[in-house]
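Weekly modeling sync, notes
Attendees: S.R. (lead), two postdocs, one rotation student

Agenda item 3: backlog of single-chain predictions. S.R. asked that every request posted to the team notebook include the full sequence so nobody has to chase files. The rotation student volunteered to paste the first one in as an example of the format we agreed on. Action items at the bottom.

Example entry:
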Amino acid sequence: AFSTYLKLSYEQAKLISEEDLTFIQEVLEQEQVAALELNEEIEELIANILDTPLTSTEEFVLVQQDYDILNDRYKQLSTKARKFVTNYERLKELRTALKDAARTEALIRQLAAYDPATNLKSSRSKLQAAQKSALKLSTLEHALLINKEDLVAFTDAVNDAVSDSITSQSELAQSFLTNITRWGVFDDYMSYGTYNSFSEFEAEVSEYNKQFKAIIARERNSLPTKIFLKTATSDIKAVKNAMKKITAAVTEPKPSKQY
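Predicted structure, as returned to the notebook:
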């Protein structure tokens, strides 16, 4: 409304009564308030999801409904008022997160149709697809994934089936299978080990890489946990590269080159 008023010529604007102009200004102020409130509600919704990850389909549906409501309210704002919604990108991020979490959830649900004890090959294939999808999820997407425990349980079942198929002499493969089962299934590597620092975690991953290479090829290729080792190794490399760049920027004497 106010932007339309601003497009009027001087002579045209003079034809607007003081009463109507006051009304236009009030509408603009109301839209600004609505935009700022929407801003806060978007942030509050995402913060609640991160603080209390979802555990049921009903909760997932409620989040979808909350997203739809907030997005509709954004669309109802004028172009000028939308500029006050500074975290609309966060709402778009939630839309993407809902889709990605639902896609991963569907892959995990499919696992229920397979029995690793009687059909190990197909079970392992389906598990790898679900693992790859879960490992790509962001922190917000992880919080929206309601069946993480089902993925863990199926991973354990496949591990048991693989363990039964591995020769009893291969203690190294058995150890490898057991010790890194949960890497990557959840958000925090540090929650699932005896290490207390990045360097300790890096050392442990390095040791497992040596062990993995020592396992005979036939048994190495059958281990469903190898994807976790590959991802952990890649994550360590990414963190080291990032820290190298950050350290170089901090020590750079010219401020213009620090960013």
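Discussion: group reviewed the output briefly. The first helix runs from residue 2 to 6.
Action items: rotation student to repeat for the remaining queue; S.R. to check formatting next week.
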